[in-house]
Amino acid sequence: MEDKGRYIYTVSQLTSSIKIVLEDSFQNIWIDGEISNFKAVAGHFYFTLKDDKSELKCVFFKSSNEKIKFEIKDGMQVLCCGKISIYEQRGVYQLYVARMEPKGIGELQLAFEQLKEKLFKEGLFDEAHKKPIPLLPERIGIVTSITGAAIRDILHVLNKRFSNVEVIINPVKVQGDEAKEEISSAIEEFNRLGNVDVMIVGRGGGSLEDLWAFNEEIVARAIYNSKIPVISAVGHEIDWTISDFVADMRAPTPSVAAEIVIAKKSELADRLDEIEKKITDFPMDIVKEYEQRLDEIEVGMVLRFRHYIELKEENFKLFSEKIQILSPLGILGRGYSISFKLPDRKIIKNSQALKKGDLIETRVSKGSFTSKVE
Question: How far apart are CA 10 and CA 14, in angstroms?
Answer without folding.
Answer: 6
